[in-house]
Amino acid sequence: MRTLVALVAVGLVLAAPAWSQTADIVLVNGKILTVDERSSIQQALAIGDGKILAVGSTADVRSLPVRRRA
């Protein structure tokens, strides 16, 4: 249990810079194949300023601020 809590805490710290940025494009309810050490499959992707800001569950990525176009 301690290991799980520690991993979640580290993940939140590493993700903090991405969550504070504004996304231009958010793709949700998909199948995102990652190239991390576990080759995990995620549901959503956020892109901002031509860079990937976040990859994760649809709910997590939808919580990011999105730049609105006029």
Question: What would you note in describing this structure?
Answer:
The chain has 70 residues and is an alpha+beta fold. It has one domain: Urease, subunit C, domain 1 (Roll). The protein has 2 helices and 5 strands. A 3-stranded antiparallel β-sheet has the order 1-4-5. It has a two-stranded antiparallel sheet with strand order 2-3. The longest helix is centred in the N-terminal third of the chain and has 18 residues, at 2-19. The termini are far apart.
Topology diagram in text:
Blueprint: H1 2-19, E1 25-27, E2 32-33, E3 41-42, E4 44-48, E5 51-56, H2 58-62
Antiparallel strand pairs: 1-4, 2-3, 4-5
Which key terms come to mind for this protein?
70 residues; alpha+beta; Urease, subunit C, domain 1; 3-stranded antiparallel sheet; two-stranded antiparallel ribbon; 2 helices; 5 strands; globular
Helix/sheet category: alpha+beta
Averaged pLDDT: 79
- Determine the number of helices (DSSP H or I, runs of at least 4 residues): 2
- Count of DSSP strands: 5
Largest sheet, spatial ordering of strands: 1-4-5
What gap, in angstroms, lies between the N and C termini? Answer: 47 Å
CATH class: Mainly Beta
CATH architecture group name = Roll
Could you give a quick summary of the protein structure above?
The protein has 70 residues and is α+β, with helices and mostly antiparallel strands. The chain is built from 2 helices and 5 strands.
